[in-house]
Amino acid sequence: MVQSAVRVFDSSAPWKLSGQVSLRDEAFGALAYHHGTRRLVFLKSRELVALVRNLEEFESADEAIDAVVVPAQHQRYVEALSSLFSSEILSGR
Amino acid sequence: MGADFSLRNRFERGLAAPICLTWELTYACNLACTHCLSSSGRRDPMELSTKEAKDLIDEIAAMQIFYINIGGGEPMIRRDFFELIEHAVRQKVGVKFSTNGTRIDEEAAERLAAIDYLDIQISIDGADAATSDRIRGAGSYDQARRAMDNLKAANFGQFKISVVMTRESIEQLDEFEALAASYGAELRLTRLRPSGRGVDVWESLHPTREQNRRLYQWLLDRPNVLTGDSFFHLSALGDPLEGLNLCGAGRVVCLIDPVGEVYACPFVIHDEFKAGNVRDAGFADVWTTSNLFQSLREPGNPGACGSCGSYDACRGGCMAAKFFTGLELTDPDPECVFGHGEAVLEKKRLTIRPTPSPDHSKRVPVAITSR
Fold first, then answer.
1. How does pLDDT run across B109-165, given as a tens digit for each residue?
2. Which A residues in the span 54-83 are in contact with B, Cβ-Cβ below 8 Å?
3. C-alpha pair distances (Å), B39 with each of B47, B66, B118, B167
4. Quick check: B119 contacting A, CB < 8 Å?
């Protein structure tokens, strides 16, 4: 298999929840299911769920994060989104 | 990635809806596998109608259950099989169905290949006809292979080859891997449970401790082999296997049978684990209000396993395996990797074991090839 170039999550770009993904609220946050990869992903906080649901409203992931959490937590949420990006839960727009 | 214990604790308290919902569409089957966990054979005349089945699918969609595992019996025997699965995927409820493959001719393969959000698991019980047919009946292996050939020819894409691990099939792991690779298929291995007719063959067919140790290592080296979280009892051997590593019964998993009865998991079709019927107030009502499910979501009593250093890894093992071998739910799993279950079983050798209910086996004895 040919190794494709490593794709990096760019938090200054606009993102949205992938159309292939269903999101279901749970007490701990939410379950995300990708219908294409058939993978289940756990969103372990309600803040993260709100952030993911609202991504589309903002010009960049950074702006979306700042609307939900305090600056000290910004980097943590960039990392969480980056992990969702690598599971194909997020797509660019 | 290691097991996430905090998340697992949340799961043990139950979810808004199951992650893994199994629906046995019919008890009718054209095979008579010796280990059938639902004792299938004859169609139940009270089977859900097409209308009832579609209503249930609508409710499943409303509960945002991402996919359903359809089984039987042989689900493709139902005349409305395609109508039902197409109704599900149209609402973005993915379908994974288990089949013996006998009904996947060229035409059916083409039709299946045209459906999105569909996974197919074709069951065999050996990597050659002789081994597989001993469990599934004469000619069944060749028919399963024909189904695989047809799916491949129809460009279905990646299907799954599903094998229950018995004392015999577990010796053919590498052959199964090669067979799957030859089709570009995924391999799925699951645990033999003493459920349904399996209760009669479990003792002679369940893997030995030494075989289970080899299986554990084999799976650890192959995270891409699917197991449906089947072998979490083996995680007591060291690093956890892929999956949630917990008994999901009534918490993240449940079973709907062909007449709408809801059981805690696919392996406990028995009155004691019946939570309700979808015909009464619907499935969501059973899932959220059943007393049985509520009690399964309470913190469990580790019983004799509490003093074992590996309890966090295996959680005492499989409820169904304990129940149908006559063990208490607080006893160790009968296949406990340290042999604790075997020791208790030995002491209870003379106790009466629960009989699986209901039994839809064909009344006429089916010819099974001699061993």
1. 999 999 999 999 999 999 999 999 999 999 999 999 999 999 999 999 999 999 999
2. none
3. 15, 28, 26, 21
4. yes
Distance (Å, rounded) from C-alpha B274 to C-alpha B140?
A: 32
Residue A20 tokens read as: 């292939």
Letter string b/e over residues B216-229, b meaning 16 or more CB atoms within 10 A of that residue's CB: beebbeeeebbbbb
d(CA B4, CA B23): 28
B244, B229 contact by CB (below 8 A):
yes
Distance in angstroms (rounded) separating the CA atoms of residues B159 and B147? 11
Put simply, whether A33 touches B (Cβ < 8 Å) is yes
pTM of the predicted structure, to 2 decimals: 0.92
Interface size A-B, in CB pairs within 8 Å, comes to 33
How is chain A split into domains, by residue range? 15-88
pLDDT over 60 (residue B213): yes
Beta bridge partners of B48: none
Residue from the list A25, A38, A40 with its beta carbon closest to the beta carbon of B16: A25
Nearest CA in chain A to B89: A35
Judged by a CB distance cut-off of 8 A, whether residue B333 touches chain A is no
B263 pLDDT above the threshold of 80: yes
* pLDDT, position B371: 45
State pLDDT tens for residues B135-146: 999 999 999 999
